[in-house]
Every structure is written in C-alpha cells, then in structure tokens.
Design brief:
Length: about 55
C-alpha cells in the first residue's frame, strides 16, 4: 500500500469517529437534560407538598 491510500484511510476513520462521537454527545446531553427536567419537576412537587402542610 502506498502513502496516499493510508492518508485516505486515516481521514475516513477520523471522519467516521467524529460522526459517531457527535451522535453519542447529543444522546448524553439529551438524557442529561431530561434528568434535569425530572429533577426540577420533583422539586416543584416537594415545594407544593410542603406548602400544603
């Protein structure tokens, strides 16, 4: 194999890895965001419950 085909392979690997990493990052951010929303909902419920006591 010559040098040029190695460069093409490396670029393809980097590009593919970058796309997968982006998808993974988005998934992590989305689940983190959902957890924050659920936590704030629980906090609001706690406040309402305490104010009713």
């Amino acid at each position: 194999m010559n040098k040029r085909s190695w460069i093409v392979i490396v670029i393809a690997l980097i590009a593919g890895g970058y796309k997968i990493w982006n998808k993974y990052q988005r998934h992590v951010e989305k689940s983190d965001y959902q957890a924050k929303i659920e936590q704030s909902i629980e906090t609001v419920k706690d406040i309402k419950f305490k104010s009713n006591e």
